[in-house]
């Protein structure tokens, strides 16, 4: 039994006790990117061997004193074989000069998949409607600054870390940054949101720089980043946007006729929803009134029609009763004879069945 207390850490040495000179090398499995040598407080003159694909941090008394690249190094620890045992007896065997070695494997390119865990809320710049996006992709990182990575990411208490550990710990940072950057990029983009799929490469490039800054804070370097999919969630907001886009396409195809077609649709729907003959006349009259309101509120939508064909929009269509009395459209029966009236085409003067959209004789639009 030794008269001097043994350092408890010596039990972690390969032989169960500290040797006079220790040869230290990375003994971790290939998938480990950071590994702290489990035994510590090495004796003065111990050697550290560092391979080409790694770096070693010499951590002494709470400070990273040296960063060793590939090669062989002799340590200066102030822990001498016999003197240290005597000196450490005053502290229960604990070394007064604590030191440890941490290996960082830098050859790894850490490939990781990512996907948003919730919707990215954006506003379509054309229609002003809010929609929800979801995104997924992949990124590759590597350890650039071993000291910063150990101190700010792994922490001084970390004993080992794999690529999966890094991906798991970085996931909240990645998702938060991607959500924020994608939303800001789309906010500054021109064009409608439904065409976003064609701009994935552009958005990936715009996201890259802010993401690179986020990784650099932890001693990591972003090698590449891909957005594989950026999709609109098909919820109620998506359906509203899709319908708005369809209406705009209808305007583009019909041009100036769009206003007349829509007004006619409203008039016919109103007439069909009213009961009885008198009700039908009331419905047509209400439809005309609604058409006027629509034309006034639509502004730019119906302005081409008003500018190009004012005589057709403002012209009052007359209806002839069997007794020969002319009444305005909207009256279903003649106020003189009480009999049903017929529609007269204002262009050719021919009788037209009430409710017709076009004159069967000259083709005049009666809407």
Structural account:
The chain is 35% helix and 23% strand. By secondary structure, the protein is of the alpha+beta class. It has 4 domains: 8-105, no CATH class; 110-234, Band 7 domain (Tetrahydropterin Synthase, Chain A, 2-Layer Sandwich); 255-310, no CATH class; 315-367, no CATH class. It has a 5-stranded antiparallel sheet with strand order 5-4-7-2-11. Strand 9 and strand 10 form a beta hairpin. Helix 3 packs across helix 4 (200-216) and helix 6 runs antiparallel to helix 7 (276-298). It is rod-shaped and about 130 Å long. The protein starts with 22 loop residues before the first strand and ends in a 15-residue tail after the last strand. 25% of the residues are buried. Residues 276-316 have low confidence and may be disordered.
């Amino acid at each position: 039994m030794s008269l001097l207390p043994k350092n408890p850490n010596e039990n972690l040495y390969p032989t169960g006790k500290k040797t006079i000179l220790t040869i230290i090398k990375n003994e971790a499995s290939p998938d480990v990117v950071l590994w702290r040598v489990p035994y510590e407080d090495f004796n003065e003159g111990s050697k550290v061997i560092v391979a080409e694909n790694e770096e070693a941090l010499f951590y002494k008394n709470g400070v990273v004193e040296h960063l060793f690249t590939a090669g062989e190094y002799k340590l200066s620890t102030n822990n001498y074989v016999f003197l240290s045992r005597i000196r450490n007896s005053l502290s229960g065997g604990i070394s007064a000069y604590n030191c440890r070695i941490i290996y960082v494997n830098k050859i790894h390119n850490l490939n990781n998949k990512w996907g948003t865990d919730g919707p990215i809320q954006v506003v379509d710049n054309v229609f002003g409607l809010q929609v929800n996006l979801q995104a997924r992709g992949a990124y590759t990182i590597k350890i650039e600054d071993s000291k910063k990575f150990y101190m700010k990411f792994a922490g001084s208490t970390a004993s080992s870390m794999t690529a999966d550990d890094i991906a798991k710990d970085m996931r909240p940072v990645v998702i938060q940054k991607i959500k924020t950057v994608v939303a800001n990029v789309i906010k500054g983009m021109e064009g409608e949101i439904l065409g976003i799929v064609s701009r994935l490469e552009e958005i990936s490039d715009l996201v890259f720089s802010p993401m690179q800054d986020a990784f650099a804070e932890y001693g990591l370097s972003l090698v590449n980043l891909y957005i594989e999919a950026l999709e609109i969630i098909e919820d109620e907001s998506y359906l509203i946007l899709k319908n708005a886009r369809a209406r705009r396409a209808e305007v583009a195809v019909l041009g100036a006729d769009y206003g007349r077609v829509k007004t006619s649709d409203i008039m016919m729907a109103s007439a069909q929803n009213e009961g009885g003959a008198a009700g039908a006349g009331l419905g047509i009259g209400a439809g005309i009134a609604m058409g006027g309101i629509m034309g006034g509120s639509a502004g730019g939508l119906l302005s081409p029609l008003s500018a190009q064909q004012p005589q057709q929009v403002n012209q009052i269509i007359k209806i002839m009763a069997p007794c020969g009395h002319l009444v305005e459209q909207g009256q279903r029966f003649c106020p003189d004879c009480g009999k049903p009236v017929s529609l007269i085409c204002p262009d050719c003067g021919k009788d037209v069945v009430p409710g017709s959209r076009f004159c069967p004789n000259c083709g005049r639009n009666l809407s």
